[in-house]
Design goal:
Elements lengths: L13 H13 L9 H21 L6 E4 L2 H16 L5 E5 L4 H12 L3 E5 L9 H7 L4 E7 L11 H7 L7 E5 L18 E5 L10 E5 L25 H16 L1 H20 L13
Parallel strand pairs: 2-3, 2-4, 4-5, 5-6
Antiparallel strand pairs: 1-7, 6-7
Helix pairs in contact: 1-7, 2-7, 3-4
Length: 288
């Protein structure tokens, strides 16, 4: 069988599965517990956070573990809206975002927020000029995905970051679920405030993910409970999942250079072959 659905989910690396089993069976203490088993689990959680932050070239305190892209997107969008609703109630996104972004925006519209959905061109790309024109005095958040999950279009994230230098009060969220491990991306250089990633998109496990939150930026928590993840994401931490995700991210980024070259060769072969088939239309932009 040839598996061609990696944008939906990837097969976990064997090493990732092994690390999950080891941590689950040998370090199963609650990281919030004060006994030795809890301390061991907390140490592993901290190490996983440090590893993810190092790989993304950010600070450990800027990484928050989640259950995946959907939770990360909802936390960034709704958390911003809830905390900053007295400053403004206008948000901007594109018309082709992942449902976890689109539905979050629609839910906020029902709560009295206004959302501008930017149109895209024939390649699925937004215009930075359109984005700039959509900005208002009450705009509090812009949420744009990095790589589209359906056609692979790459959005101008770096250009948006440059634009927002002139609008420091507006927060910038990027759904990078489809781009991590496939496309070079600097959170700092792109001036991103929030960034969502999901472990199962880069050979980790389903139900694991992380949200980058730039230092000094605040969100309203969506969960109430035991104040885990520095009071932003309550709930007993998935230590084994976090460790496994950190390993998957490291392995993916380590293999990225050779893996991307191989992917480009396969892409070229598929394009050439599909183009020869009558009535087949390729929607992914050629430059991607």
């Amino acid at each position: 069988m040839i598996y061609l659905d990696n944008s939906a989910t990837t097969k976990p690396f064997k090493e990732v599965l092994d690390s999950f089993v080891t941590v689950s069976s040998e370090y199963y203490g609650n990281p919030s517990s004060l006994h030795n088993m809890g301390a061991q689990a907390e140490k592993l959680l901290s190490q996983a956070r440090e590893q993810v932050s190092k790989l993304l070239k950010v600070k450990p305190s800027e990484i928050y573990f989640t259950s995946g892209g959907t939770e990360g997107n909802n936390l960034a969008i709704k958390g911003t809206a809830l905390l900053h609703k007295n400053k403004g109630r206008h948000l901007i996104t594109s018309s082709i975002e992942h449902p976890s972004v689109q539905s979050a925006m629609e839910q906020l519209e029902q709560e009295g927020f206004e959302v501008t959905y930017l149109p895209v061109d024939e390649h699925g790309r937004i215009s930075v000029a359109d984005l700039e024109s959509a900005i208002r005095k009450d705009t509090i958040l812009i949420s744009i995905m990095h790589v589209n999950n359906e056609v692979g279009t790459v959005q101008p994230i770096e250009e948006i970051g440059e634009l927002l230098i002139n609008h420091p009060a507006i927060l910038f969220h990027v759904d990078a679920v489809q781009s991590i491990g496939k496309l070079p991306f600097s959170l700092k250089e792109s001036r991103v405030d929030f960034c969502s990633i999901s472990g199962h998109k880069f050979h980790g496990l389903k139900g694991t993910g992380a949200l980058y939150i730039r230092e000094g930026t605040r969100l309203a928590p969506l969960f109430s409970g035991g104040n885990q993840e520095r009071k932003l994401r309550s709930g007993t931490e998935n230590v084994a999942g976090a460790v496994a995700m950190a390993k998957a991210l490291r392995m993916t980024l380590t293999k990225a250079e050779t893996g991307l070259a191989r992917m480009k060769r396969i892409q070229k072969m598929l394009r050439n072959g599909l183009t020869e088939i009558e009535d087949v239309q390729i929607h992914t932009p050629h430059e991607n």
